[in-house]
Amino acid sequence: NAPKGLTIVKDKLYAADVDELVEIDITSGKVLNKYLAHGAVCLNDVTHDNYGNVYTGDTYTDSIYRLNQFGQLPLWFYSPQLAPNGLHYDNERDSIVVGSWGAVMEGWGTPKLQGNLKDINIHSKEIKDLGRKPIGNLDGVESNGDGAYYVTDWSGGMLYLVKSNGKYKVLNEVGKGAADHEVILEKDMIIIPIMTEGKVMALKIK
Asked: Rg for the chain (alpha carbons), in Å?
């Protein structure tokens, strides 16, 4: 329908698709399961932890759902104005790092509120701000392999490097519509889709 975020667990591809998490066999390309996220409006990004759980965030309802090993997709976390757009599991912190949109208005225009990175411990569910200053309508979140994160700002068109203490710098102005990206550390490369222009950009990151 309208798939957005993707993650791979073993030989399965998981895609966020409006109000369902779709499980696809990579070898055959067949859809194996569709897990309904009750109450979801706009499932966006997907990530997974080291324990076999798959997480998907609903930007419009400030919610994160977690697919457990029993094939259930219950609501896992809710926080007002969380607006989770990007999700990234941080192995070192054992937490979900959330790229917050800030606030959602009708359509996808620039909202009055912007977001920052947030950290949710997957065991205690304690939530912390990674820097209190809002920096944009955050979309993709990926590790730089050294304790910081590459983050895209959809409305501002920026690629940021954000440290775990919230300090950040602009790495590149890539254009409005910079969405969920992929980092290939062994090639020192980042791949960024620019939604408003219908193109994919490849950048060297070192």
From this structure: 16
Residue pLDDT, tens place only, 63-82: 999 998 888 899 999 999 89
Question: Residue 202: exposed, middle, or buried by beta-carbon count in 10 A (0-12, 13-18, 19+)?
Answer: exposed
Specify the pTM. 0.93
CA–CA distance, 17 with 37 (Å, rounded to integer): 10
Q: Strands 84-90 and 3-9: what pairing?
A: unpaired
Encode pLDDT of 6-60 as tens digits: 999 999 999 999 999 999 999 999 999 999 999 999 999 999 999 989 999 999 9
Count how many Cα atoms sit within 13 Å of the Cα of residue 143 in the half-sphere of its side chain: 15
From CA 201, how far away is CA 31, in angstroms rounded? 29
Burial of residue 75 (CB within 10 Å: 0-12, 13-18, 19+) is middle
CB 165 within 8 A of CB 125: no
Gap between the Cα atoms of 161 and 172, Å rounded: 10
Measured between its terminal Cα atoms, the distance across the chain in Å is: 37
Tokens of 183: 């980092």
